[in-house]
Structure to design on (238 residues):
């Protein structure tokens, strides 16, 4: 499926978009529902419940998309866990306004327990595991045996686990999760992500013997000139 993307914009968008709530526009909510449905089909086909969200560069909106997907999944009355695995530039705690003194890195470092670190019921049916203290060795932590064991344990508790990962075009951390996730949902931003960026990301994922579950394009505008607020939509990737 071809995806029309704009050329790179020098003034890269870095602001955090709003998360889903009762006042969110219908088009945005429905777009996330469509994404959720397609991701569920992809997960059921491979009999897995864990997937990752990534992008090519920073500032393209992957953390906001991760948060909104987690909210959308939780509205089905399923137990959902959102994990911030971006141990270099974490943002999930900012989106939900959570304390980040301890989290994923502290668990893997065996400084705290999982039970003491997960933020329970941030929203109905939604728990969040923030990144924790920024470590000096993020890559080593994410490919450690203890992290893999932790994910396996969490899979027993949750219906869906969504992992926010670092941009693939910046560091290779996300690809270290390839054996623990069903695949990647890729976030691209209009007027920021280029075709070249997307092609390089797809090549990285292919070389890692993983797969892309779908592509979510953000920062689009309504065709109605009177309303130019951005919204999201999902495209299934083949």
């Amino acid at each position: 499926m071809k995806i029309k993307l704009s050329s790179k914009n020098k003034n890269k968008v870095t602001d955090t978009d709003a998360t889903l709530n009762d006042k969110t526009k219908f088009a945005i909510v429905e777009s996330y529902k469509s994404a959720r449905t397609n991701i569920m089909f992809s997960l059921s086909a491979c009999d897995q419940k864990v997937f990752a969200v990534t992008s090519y560069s920073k500032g393209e909106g992957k953390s906001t998309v991760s948060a909104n997907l987690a909210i959308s999944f939780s509205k089905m009355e399923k137990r959902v866990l959102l994990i911030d695995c971006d141990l270099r530039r974490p943002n999930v705690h900012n989106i939900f306004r959570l304390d980040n003194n301890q989290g994923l890195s502290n668990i893997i470092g065996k400084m705290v327990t999982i039970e003491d670190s997960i933020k329970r019921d941030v929203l109905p049916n939604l728990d969040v595991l923030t990144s924790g203290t920024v470590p000096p060795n993020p890559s080593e932590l994410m490919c450690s045996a203890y992290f893999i064991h932790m994910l396996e344990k969490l899979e027993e508790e949750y219906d869906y686990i969504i992992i926010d990962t670092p941009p693939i075009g910046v560091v290779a951390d996300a690809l270290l999760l390839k054996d623990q996730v069903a695949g990647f949902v890729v976030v691209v931003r209009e007027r920021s992500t280029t075709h070249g960026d997307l092609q390089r990301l797809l090549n990285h994922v292919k070389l890692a013997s993983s797969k892309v579950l779908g592509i979510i394009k953000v920062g689009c505008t309504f065709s109605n000139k009177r309303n130019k607020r951005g919204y999201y939509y999902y495209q299934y990737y083949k």
User: Anything to note?
Assistant: The longest strand covers residues 212-221. The two ends are 7 Å apart (CA to CA).
